[in-house]
Design a protein that fits this description.
The chain is globular and about 55 Å long. It has helices spanning 2-7, 11-18, 22-28, 58-65, 75-88, 104-115, 119-137, 151-165, 225-234, 250-255, 263-266, 328-344, 353-359, 362-375; strands spanning 39-45, 69-70, 95-101, 142-149, 235-242, 277-285, 307-313. β2 (69-70), α5 (75-88) and β3 (95-101) form a beta-alpha-beta unit. The chain has 2 domains: 1-31, no CATH class; 37-375, no CATH class. It has 14 helices and 7 strands. The longest helix has 19 residues, at 119-137. With 390 residues, it is α/β, with parallel strands linked by helices. α5 (75-88) runs parallel beside α7 (119-137) and α7 packs across α8. It starts with a helix and ends in a 15-residue tail after the last helix.
Length: 390
C-alpha cells in the first residue's frame, strides 16, 4: 500500500504509513520532476497596469491557452475547483490548475504603479489558493509554475522568498474544509481564436492594508521543521521571468537603501528557496526604455538547486510580449514561453493559430535571422539610454 501511494505521487501519506524517519523520507523524495507531479499549478502574473482577461500581453494569452482549471482568485473558489476536479478524476490522472493575477497597479492604483503596493497581497493570495488546492487533494507532489512580466516577474521572486521564509503558507492544509463555491458558465474569448476554458468564478478579494516597505519582503516567522520538509518533499517551483523590473532607480537601490526596504533590494536574493526552486527561464529584451522610466531589470541571486537560463531577446520590455503575431520579437517570445511551459513545466496548452502559423514558414525564419543581424548594429540615437541596462 505504501509503495502504491508513493508511486501515485503521495509521498507524505506513504512515509506516514511506513513509519519512515524524517531523514529517510526526505532522501527518498528529494529527486523528482514535473513528469512525476500529480498536480500542476500555474500562476500568470501580468505587468504593472495590465489585466489578464483583456489579454494585454501574452501573459493573458497563455492563461487562456492553458488547459488547466481556473481556480479564480480566492480560497473558496480554489477549494471548490479542486473538489470538482477530484470528483471527476476517476482514472487518477494528473490534475492541472491555473490562476491569473492582474497587475498591482491595476488593483491598487497609483500606489501600486509607483511603489508596488499590493504585490505582497497578490502573492499571499496565490499561496492561499495553492494551499487550498493541495489540502483538498491530500498534499500530492505539486509542480508550481509562475509566469511573470515586469512587476509580475518581481512578484514571482517574492513567491520564492515567501516559500523560504514561510513555507506553511503553501503547504500543510491537510484536508481542511473550505467553503463551497458556486460555478457559472465559462467566460468567452474571440480575438485570437482561443477556445473557452473552464472557469470557477472569482469573488472580490479584500485588499490587505500594507506599507510600502512590505510590498515584497515577507516577514520572517518561526518555521516548523514539518512545513519546511513538507515543502521540499512535495513542492517544486519553476519560474518564467520576462524582464523583471522593480521600478526603483539603480542609484537609490544601490546607495540610498541601507535597510534594504526597496522592492529592488528585497527581490535580489531568493536563495532561501533552495531545494524548491528548480528551474528558471529569465528573458531580457535588449532594447532599453529611457532611464527616466526607472527601467532597470533585476538579475537576482538564485539558490544552488535552480537551473537558470538567462536570455537576451529581441524587442523592448512589454512590447516584446504583446499579442502581435506580425512582430518578430513577439513571435520569438511566444516560441520561448510556449516551449518552456510545455517542455519544462508540464503545462498543456491549446494552439494559437496566428502565432503557430507565423512560426512554421520559411519567410518567418528568414525574418528572425534578419532581426538577429540588426541587433548587432549599434543604436546611438536612443533617448536617455539606461547605462545599467546596456
Amino acid at each position: 500500500m505504501a509503495e502504491a501511494l508513493r508511486a501515485a505521487g503521495f509521498p507524505l501519506l506513504a512515509s506516514k504509513l511506513r513509519g519512515d524517519t524524517t531523514e529517510e523520507a526526505e532522501e527518498v523524495t528529494a529527486s523528482w520532476g514535473p513528469e512525476d507531479a500529480r498536480l500542476i499549478f500555474t500562476a500568470y502574473f501580468e505587468g504593472t497596469a495590465n489585466v489578464v482577461e483583456r489579454r494585454t500581453t501574452q501573459v493573458g494569452l497563455f492563461h487562456e491557452l492553458d488547459r488547466g482549471i481556473d481556480v479564480g482568485n480566492d480560497v473558496a473558489s480554489a477549494a471548490q475547483a479542486a473538489r470538482t476536479a477530484r470528483e471527476q478524476n476517476r482514472r487518477g490522472r494528473r490534475l492541472r490548475f491555473k490562476m491569473g493575477v492582474d497587475g498591482c497597479g491595476h488593483e491598487n492604483g497609483l500606489a501600486g504603479v509607483v511603489f508596488a503596493v499590493g504585490l505582497r497581497g497578490q502573492c499571499e493570495r496565490l499561496a492561499a489558493c495553492v494551499r487550498a488546492v493541495r489540502g483538498v487533494l491530500g498534499e500530492p507532489r505539486t509542480q508550481l509554475n509562475v509566469v511573470g512580466l515586469s512587476r509580475g516577474a518581481v512578484a514571482a521572486l517574492a513567491v520564492a522568498e515567501m516559500l523560504g521564509a514561510a513555507p506553511s503558507q503553501f503547504v500543510g492544509a491537510g484536508t481542511e474544509d473550505m467553503d463551497d463555491g458556486a460555478s457559472t458558465p465559462p467566460s468567452s474569448s474571440s480575438s485570437l481564436n482561443v477556445p473557452d476554458s473552464p472557469r470557477i468564478p472569482d469573488s472580490d478579494p479584500l485588499l490587505k492594508a500594507e506599507s510600502v516597505t512590505e510590498a515584497v519582503r515577507y516577514p520572517q516567522e518561526p518555521v516548523s521543521m514539518d512545513a519546511r520538509l513538507l515543502a521540499r518533499r512535495t513542492l517544486r517551483l519553476h519560474f518564467l521571468l520576462f524582464d523583471p523590473v522593480p521600478g526603483n532607480q539603480v542609484y537609490t537601490t544601490r546607495y540610498l537603501d541601507p535597510l534594504r526596504v526597496t522592492t529592488g533590494n528585497q527581490a535580489m536574493d531568493v536563495s532561501s528557496s533552495d531545494g524548491i526552486l528548480r528551474r528558471v527561464l529569465a528573458i531580457y529584451p535588449y532594447e532599453p526604455l529611457p532611464a527616466i522610466t526607472f527601467h532597470a531589470p533585476l538579475v537576482p541571486r538564485y539558490p544552488a538547486s535552480a537551473s537558470v537560463y538567462e536570455i537576451a531577446s529581441l524587442g523592448c520590455h512589454q512590447g516584446a510580449l504583446l499579442c502581435a503575431p506580425n512582430r518578430i520579437s513577439c513571435r520569438l517570445s511566444y516560441a520561448m514561453v510556449r516551449g518552456f511551459l510545455v517542455n519544462d513545466c508540464g503545462v498543456k496548452l491549446r494552439g494559437c493559430r496566428p502565432f503557430d502559423e507565423a512560426l512554421v514558414t520559411r519567410q518567418a525564419t528568414l525574418r528572425v535571422l534578419e532581426m538577429l543581424r540588426a541587433v548587432l548594429v549599434p543604436r546611438p540615437n536612443l533617448l536617455f539610454p539606461s547605462r545599467a541596462h546596456r
